[in-house]
User: What shape does this take?
Amino acid sequence: MLIMIRALSLLAGLTLCAALHPLTSAASINMPQTQPAEEILARGILRAQQSTEIKAGMTAQLIELPYKEGEYFRLGALIAQFDCTLEEAELAALEKRHQTYRLKYENSAELHKFGAAGRLDVALAQSEMQQALAETKLIKARLKYCTIHAPYSGFVTARPASVFETPQQGELLYSLEKSGPLDLSIIVPSNWMTWLKKGHSLEFKIDETGEIIQAQIIRLGASIDPVSQTIEVIAKPHSNKFLMSGMSGYASFERAHE
Assistant: This one.
């Protein structure tokens, strides 16, 4: 009998508490649950911030092509030299011709003062002098292509030419990549722009090594590919240690549910 009385008293107390706090009980029952973030993947590739193709500026024999594929070079290093013996000889001859025509013009101008030469003689002498000067400048401009120096410090990624060959003007000599921090280029669906912004963090798993690195979006592409409906985003790895241009893998993003 005593046990039954105590049980009834406990039940009455619980009923009273529920009556006194109806809002708290309802709120506890109807409180929305936080949804976990969704992890989504996209392919990416590491690449140099700057790359360049070095092409022949003239048709002549290569006598220096010192750097091979994979080798490192410094800013200003001589990376190619052509045999410009003929151009140098032609320049010397043109400079002598220009000097001769200049003396001829000066003499004609002096004779014209005393009436011993006509205006036409002076004009023709001046024209010959100016033509020789123009040809001299043209050869000097061509001689600038005889040597090629590195535009920055970096690595040779390709060298299709060989020393002692005679490439035609415009033929590829080197493909170069600038050394230093790498960019991570990722191609993502264009509708990701609704939530993927500058500063978004990500993880990148490298296919070649299996290593996972941390990175952060630093900019989005300026245009969308209308065919594939994709856009390029550029991320900056937090560390470039042991990374090489050309490494590829999967970028992992977390997208919070709204």
The chain is about 30% helix and 30% strand.
